Amino acid sequence: MGTHSLIEKYSPVSEALKGKVVGEDYPLPDFGVADKECLKGYRVALVTTHGPELPEFHVPLHYLRERGATVDVVTQDWLFDYQPEAPGMVMLAQWLAVNVCVRADKKVSEAKTDDYDAVVTIGGAWNPIMLRTDSNIINFIKGAKERNLLIASICHGPQLLISTQAFPPGTSATGVSDIRLDMSNAGFHVLGSPIVYDKDQRLITSPGPKALKEFCEEIGRRLLEIKEKKTTNTAINETDVKQFVRDWFDKFDNHPLPPVDEMLSFLSDEKFVLKTPDGSFYYKHEGFKKWYKSVENYIKPVHTIRALEAKTYRDTATVEIVVQWQATDSSVKDAESRSVDFYAAQTWKVERMPENQRLFIVWYNIDYLIRTVQT
Q1: What pairs with residue 305 in β-bridges?
Q2: Phi-psi region of 279 (alpha: psi -120 to 50; beta: other; left: phi over 0)
Q3: Over the range 168-180, which residues count as b (16 or more CB within 10 Å of their CB) and which as e?
């Protein structure tokens, strides 16, 4: 005997009760006459699994498709691999009622962030819970963030964003009221507006179905900005990024260290975030100045790049670096202990500035330090 047999001990749900658990009948937003060409050429991944709120699925999907965008419904692998009776079918919910379904376009393991301009995550009672425990889904959202794709999330959708740990503290966002404390605890700057757009993180969030009109129109508006950026020819190539990294470390390899203003020329101000291995964050130019002062006691530095990989996408690059850092700590009195020799693993995000075509660092993460082994 299994747990399914327990239903015999309880009353079946009456038809009258079934009619009550479909939740609120939200009015569908009126967007007016759609321009069927305005979003042509844009590709969007709508990420979901069983249990998304029906209007949060339907309205963005059709808003985008009716304006020419290509939208792929992306779901967990197991909906294709372990549902032989209905491969790829996703059950859509109306609060507690589940009585309609739709077929997803592809499993997440087959979806590549390179193919998309934006990713949309939606709510529902158990949809985000299932998504946030799936490593393939988490990695897909992380990949979208690393490539600086537009990400839009509504209602309980930000629960998935919390689990990615991909958004720096202070990211502006909103969500349904019962997850706002969780969002705040995760470092988000939580607002109560029907639409919140964090420009630096390219993140759109809305609190629920009543804000679907604002949510969809904001997605369309921000997608069109991509087209405007394309005309400025800000694309980054791997060669330029690698030379930019070398120039940065060459600048550091001076004694005494160069004036901080020379280093600031490599950094974005409004967007810049530096994270150190101890979990400390430094924001904007003022934060970098504070960190820079803390390393002034390390003299005669030498940085040797041991590994360098750059992944470029339009005007953004994600850079992974392993650099050997050797220096003398002038604050240590014992001569034998003054020598510093570490391998530092770092992850950067680099963007090209449209107005002058220069590269600048927006995210500088010192992942970890490992002392070299002396032989």
Answers
A1: 323
A2: left
A3: beebbbbbbeebb
Burial class of residue 14 in the structure, from the number of CB atoms within 10 Å of its CB (0-12 exposed, 13-18 middle, 19+ buried): exposed
Confirm if 66 and 36 have CB atoms less than 8 A apart.
Answer: yes
pLDDT in tens, 117-138: 999 999 998 999 999 999 999 9
Task: Report the range of poorest mean pLDDT among 243-252, 296-305, 307-316, 335-344.
Answer: 335-344
Residue 278 phi/psi, 5° resolution? -85, 5
Instruction: Name the nearest CA neighbour of 217 among 36, 30, 55.
Output: 30
pLDDT digits (tens, 9 = 90+) for 94-105: 998 888 999 999
pTM above 0.90, yes or no: no
pLDDT digits (tens, 9 = 90+) for 218-240: 999 999 987 654 444 567 888 88
Which tokens hold the place of 207?
């609190």
CA distance 297 to 328: 8
Write down the pLDDT at residue 375.
Answer: 44
Which segment of 71-75, 174-178, 197-201, 224-228 scores lowest on mean pLDDT?
224-228
Positive or negative torsion for Cα 353, 355, 358, 361? negative
Q: Are 368 and 362 in contact (CB under 8 A)?
A: no
Is the dihedral angle over the CA atoms 256, 259, 263, 265 positive or is it negative? negative
249 pLDDT higher than 70: yes
Residue 2 scores a pLDDT above 90: yes
